[in-house]
Design a protein that fits this description.
The complex is a heterodimer of chains A (111) and B (115). Chain A is built from no helices and eleven strands. By secondary structure, chain A is mainly beta. The model of chain A has no long low-confidence stretch (mean pLDDT 92). Classes of the chains: A mainly beta (111), B mainly beta (115). At the A-B interface, β4, β5, β9 and β10 of A face β5, β9 and β10 of B.
């Protein structure tokens, strides 16, 4: 059974600081997804990472994938309040459509 | 274009009643997924449709849960004899095809409360 672990589960940051969220998974995968969820809202797709060494950046967020280590990171640069949300990673095993989600990281950016 | 829509947005029901939750996927998306999100948790996969058939029902938690899809479009998730542990947000997603990049687009969810 595929397991996906995120850490930390809760993250309180000050504006302007940098931090990284980690996503470890337990089996071979060729697709990893990062989603953002605002309170009471649905999930918004942030990044799709498809290969070892893939790196994608959007604004203050950068995601990377190391398939050998079975690890993805979501790096936050110079955080701003608008980034406050819950961030989920999700993994699909190779050749499979089914996404398994981590428990999410609740990010709070304080002024 | 229109995204995934779900109805109702909120549903409060008494324990033991049946409920139906509806999902309208993005037009042209052949794959449709149902997930459940309990408070403070990640998403649990429930069922997947490719067209109108459901090759994977492995995530349905009990035989009280069923789902159907018609016309490669609308899907209905039915929960019979609801229990308090069924309280959760039920999210539907669709994608162009299962497999490949398979980027799933999520609807706003139905918040189900069983009293």
């Amino acid at each position: 059974e595929l397991k996906v672990e995120q850490n930390p589960l809760f993250l309180s940051m000050q504006e302007g600081k940098n931090y990284t969220i980690y996503c470890n998974y337990s089996t071979t995968s060729d697709r990893l997804y990062w989603y953002r969820q605002d309170p009471g809202k649905s999930l918004e797709s942030l990044f799709v990472l498809l290969s070892n060494g893939a790196v994608k950046q959007e604004g203050r967020l950068m995601a990377s994938l190391d398939t050998k280590a079975r690890l993805s990171t979501l790096h936050i640069t110079a955080a701003v309040h608008d980034l406050s949300a819950t961030y989920f990673c999700a993994v699909a095993p190779r050749g499979n459509y089914k996404l398994t989600f981590g428990k999410g990281t609740l990010l709070t950016v304080n002024p | 274009g229109a995204g995934v829509s779900q109805s109702p947005s909120n549903k409060v029901t008494e324990k033991g009643k049946d409920v139906e939750l509806r999902c309208d996927p993005i037009s042209g998306h052949t794959a449709l997924y149902w997930y459940r999100q309990r408070l403070g948790q990640g998403l649990e996969f429930l069922i997947y449709f490719q067209g109108n058939s459901a090759p994977d029902k492995s995530g349905l938690p009990s035989d009280r849960f069923s789902a159907e899809r018609t016309g490669e479009s609308v899907s209905t998730l039915t929960i019979q004899r609801t229990q308090q542990e069924d309280s959760a947000v039920y999210l539907c997603a669709s994608s162009e095809l299962a497999g490949g990049i398979n980027e799933q687009y999520f609807g706003p969810g139905t918040r189900l409360t069983v009293t």
